[in-house]
Design goal:
alpha/beta; elongated; D-Maltodextrin-Binding Protein, domain 2
Amino acid sequence: MTLDQLETFVYIARTHSFSRAAVVLGLAQPTLSGRISALEGELGSQLFLRHGHTLELSETGRALLPYAERMLALRTEGVAEVQRLALGGLGRLTLGANLSASQYLVPRLIELFHHQHPDVPIRVRTATSPALMESLLDGVIQLAICSQAQLEPRAQVLWSYSDPLLLVASRDHPLARQGECSRADLAHHTILSTQAGPTRLGLRHVLPPDDATPIAIEANAGEVMTQLLRRGLGVTVLPAIAVWDELERGELVSIRVRDATLPPYDVALVQWSGRALSPAATAFAEMVHGIRVPEVLSGGQ
């Protein structure tokens, strides 16, 4: 299976005609027919069906089309990237971010980077920290900002930040009005949680020791969790970077737990050890080294 064969297949699928595709590609029709025959022979199935004068995709053709289009798009991106680098550009920045960091920290960092390098294309992938490790390994992304506690041993830390974990609730929540509580007090309130990550870790430190307090609602960190909190549905533990704007606006309130100490939540910018970074990724890492996170989140840098 070659890119020439896939390109021919895609153009025939789009034009519904061998002759029209031959004109678009600037090739003789027998050349197109030979490419499709070879591709069908490799797949062991017909790609097109004729209905009178109409040429339609077979089931095999419909299954192949999105993959063929993606492969051709990747070829186009690859050529553009090489040409950009040849002209002295930085290339593309491919960055991954976990759910906590992607809420406010990563958008602020991307804004800073874009202002410094407006010509650099940026692609951001949001996923859990373990999934980001897989993307780093596969080369889908070059850099990731994620939980330092969930790093692969082969991930190389380029920068790290220790963020406070906070017990938070809506400003109208009874505990928020009090400003503080004990671990035992939480047994009488609705507890929100994520399925994994810093929230689970933090709740183990603040819930009553007998662990009899049930988790009422589970949701992913991010917009769903902050919306539930803002609506007063319960309390939970989140990193400050995940609810920064809501805390600044007073929509959510941090509650002190008198008889518990929450651990920090450590995030890190990492690459896969031993792999060379693109100039764009190197520039991003260098920028992050010079930031002060609270200032960035507050718009002061």
